[in-house]
Write a structure and sequence with these properties.
- By secondary structure, the chain is α/β, with parallel strands linked by helices.
- It is 48% helix and 9% strand.
- The strands form 3 sheets. It has a 7-stranded mixed sheet, with helices on both faces. The chain has a 5-stranded parallel sheet with strand order 1-3-2-4-5, with helices on both faces.
- It binds 1,4-dihydronicotinamide adenine dinucleotide (NAI).
- The site of 1,4-dihydronicotinamide adenine dinucleotide (NAI) has 27 residues, from helix 14, helix 15 and strand 7.
Length: 603
């Protein structure tokens, strides 16, 4: 009997602690707190104002990151209220670029980021992979309520945001990314699971850092890596059959290897490859429509041919095939790639990876281009896309030349590398050196630009995959397709291009404003679900019924047909919106929700 009373009191105390200064009078009385806490009973808005002021008082972005991490572990509801109401300012702190800085320092700051938590996710060493059932059991014990997680972001820290091999320090990425899934698309925070595969690091800096928190060994060979990863994925799949796995920041060959191996066996995707391709495609569709030349005359030069570059190009090829009915080989011929050795050609004399050889030129004769400048003169591109991590690579000279080459149309320039210190150029540079004619999207958020001598303020497009991965996660978690097809990503990209409002279109903005992210995520998730149902990969009758009742199925299942239109009905959109998690608006609502969903504060 006393056990029950104790646990009721403990849970009331926990909820009360998290309600903090908003704790109602009745709860204060029941917990005998009269005289022990300040008398003012606040509402959530006032708490949020205080938290925002504290956040703004921090002098560096890393301090802001630390404050927010600690707030997240103290009060999930307040944290997400703050993030949602200041999304544009806070997203770059909890995710790129500041999360990169946090990851570089993670072993030094980790214990202070989460002072109120035993664990923030799974840290799985190679030897743990032999005991995955125990690890999963430990996780279950820690949760207040045995509800399965519905999404995990999993990394081995081997190639974090273009910053290199950060080993276990890469854990900041799954943590941050899952916060964006919640904030941007309303995934349930209590059902998110960050995972780092702590299989070692090849970074001398971390191997020699006395405070490094991960396994102090070099990374294993490919066989060991794939076998160990398989043990982890199979154990997760056994324990949580509906779990969506998002692969994140693996080294390029492992990223492709894992995706190829698992994408049809379990619900999974790789955001670097597929998410990036999808978001860039969305902006690219908008840019091509505004460029002023027929799509089939586009000549697209990629600077950078890593997992992001190749992933993006694969998606763009689909656009020419699907929307412009070009044969696949003709569409592929619109693309050229430059990597660190120059223009990628079949006869340049090195062994190309499978991914690169797909885009190697065979029509170059004896011509080889060692630099971007040479390639620009040779290709005369209409679109220049940077996924190279080379800061400033789109120099004044390159940008001016792009403008000259494209006098009859508007140059499309996408410097997509993250963080800002890796971006190929800024928005200001792109505007200035193209006489403001550029159709622009970048990976990081650049400031708006006022055209000199006018009041004309232009907003840069931000081709950040933050527009799509939360929505894909939400759509997949809700309708649980057997697997995630290319056409589902395609539908999301189309829905993204369709989601711009009139003001955004008039201002040459290639993406919707980030402040509208929740509305946009709901639309994209609805498009994803609609496409998944059309493809016959959704088992749940609920979604099949509402999609087919509201929009007759027109999909030709054999091909990526033109019916991949990113459309959805109001009914599907409405249903998605209802199911999106939101932080409680009042303390009363918070208390009720904390009782019904105790895991929200756990991980
Ligand atoms: P990666 O390291 O796999 O690939 C980089 C590519 O750039 C390689 O092909 C490399 O040969 C080439 N490169 C490097 N230095 C070069 C040089 N000096 N000259 C010519 N080529 C050079 O990196 P990954 O994963 O493909 O990512 C690239 C960038 O894309 C990163 O900065 C990443 O943050 C960014 N990215 C942006 C996203 C977005 O949403 N905007 C999403 C995913 C990645």
């Amino acid at each position: 009997m006393s056990d029950g009373n104790d646990s009721r009191r403990n849970s009331m105390e926990l909820i009360g602690t998290r309600a903090g200064t908003a704790m109602p009078i009745e709860m204060r009385q029941a917990l005998h707190l009269k005289g022990l806490v300040p008398s003012s009973i606040e509402n959530f808005s006032k708490q949020e104002l205080r938290a925002y002021q504290q956040l703004m008082s921090k002098s560096t972005n890393l301090e802001k990151y630390e404050f927010l991490a600690s707030l997240r572990s103290l009060n999930v509801n307040l944290f997400f209220r703050l993030v949602l109401n200041h999304f544009k300012d806070i997203a770059p702190i909890i995710y790129t670029p500041t999360v990169g800085e946090a990851c570089l320092n993670y072993s030094h700051i980790y214990p202070f980021l989460y002072p109120f938590k035993t664990s923030i996710g799974l840290f799985i060493t190679l030897s743990d992979t032999e005991n995955m059932d125990m690890v999963i059991d430990n996780y279950r014990q820690l949760m207040a309520d045995p509800i399965d997680p519905e999404i995990t972001v999993i990394t081995d820290g081997s190639r974090i945001l273009g910053l290199g091999d950060l080993g276990v320090n890469g854990m900041g990425i799954p943590v941050g990314k899952l916060q964006l899934y919640v904030a941007a698309a309303g995934l349930n925070p209590g059902r998110t699971l960050p995972i780092v595969l702590d299989f070692g690091t090849n970074s001398e800096q971390y191997l020699n850092d006395p405070l490094y928190l991960g396994t102090r060994e070099r990374r294993p060979d490919d066989n060991t890596f794939y076998e160990a990863t398989e043990r982890v994925l199979q154990a997760l799949h056994r324990a949580f059959p509906g779990l969506l796995v998002q692969f994140e920041d693996f080294s390029t060959s492992h990223a492709f290897g894992l995706l190829d191996k698992w994408r049809q066996k379990m619900l999974c995707f790789n955001d670097d490859i597929q998410g990036t391709g999808c978001v860039i495609l969305g902006g690219f569709i908008s840019a091509v429509k505004q460029a002023g030349i027929p799509a089939k005359d586009q000549r697209i030069l990629f600077f950078g041919a890593g997992s992001a570059g190749v992933g993006v190009a694969r998606q763009l090829v689909d656009y020419f095939v699907v929307d412009h009915k070009m044969p696949r080989d003709k569409a592929g011929a619109l693309f050229w790639f430059v990597d660190s050795r120059g223009l990628i050609t079949a006869n340049r004399g090195d062994v190309l990876t499978k991914q690169k050889s797909r885009f190697a030129r065979h029509d170059n004769g004896d011509v080889q281009c060692g630099t971007l400048e040479d390639a620009l003169e040779y290709v005369k591109p209409t679109a220049l896309i940077g996924l190279s991590t080379v800061h400033g690579a789109f120099s004044e000279k390159i940008l001016r030349r792009m403008n000259e080459i494209n006098t009859q149309s508007r140059p499309i320039i996408f410097p997509l590398s993250n963080p800002e210190t890796k971006a190929e150029c800024t928005f200001e540079e792109a505007m200035r050196y193209t006489d403001n004619r550029v159709l622009f999207a970048s990976g990081t958020a650049f400031p708006e630009y006022t055209i000199p001598g006018t009041d004309d303020i232009r907003m840069p497009g931000q081709g950040n995959n933050m527009y799509v991965f939360p929505a894909i996660g939400l759509g997949a978690v809700l309708c649980k397709p057997d697997w995630i097809t290319d056409t589902m990503f395609y539908a999301v990209a189309k829905a993204l291009a369709n989601s711009r409002n009139e003001e955004e279109k008039t201002g040459d903005e290639l993406y919707p404003r980030i402040e509208r992210i929740r509305e946009v995520s709901a639309q994209l998730a609805a498009a994803f679900i609609t496409q998944a149902v059309r493809e016959g990969l959704v088992k749940e009758a609920h979604w099949r019924d509402i999609v087919s009742a509201n929009m007759p199925c027109t999909q030709d299942d054999d091909t990526i047909g033109s019916s991949v239109d990113g459309q959805f009905s109001k009914r599907v959109l409405g249903e998605v919106k209802t199911l999106m998690w939101k932080p409680a608006a009042s303390v009363e609502q918070y208390i009720v929700e904390s009782i019904t969903n105790p895991n929200v504060d756990e991980m």
